[in-house]
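Q: What structure does this chain adopt?
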Amino acid sequence: MLAVSGDDGALHAVAEPAAARQYDLNVTWLVTGDGGHGTGPDHVAPAESFGVTGVRTSPQTLAADLAKALAAPGPSVVVLPTALRMPAPAHSG
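A:
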């Protein structure tokens, strides 16, 4: 199973990897981290503290890292840092 959320959603659900480990669920959580809060919280370290495999990936290695995580038994967290791009204003002033 694959769950996807942004880093804000992951911060609100930081204990979910612990529950997944407790029940030994086969779920991979893909977290896209855009640093929208002005910080770049580390989502790998909390996952690993619960005994869940965590990995930081990149656009170039995402497919391989995600395939590996999905194939492994038990829960995992894959973090993909992304660039926050704000749209251009539709009008000025």
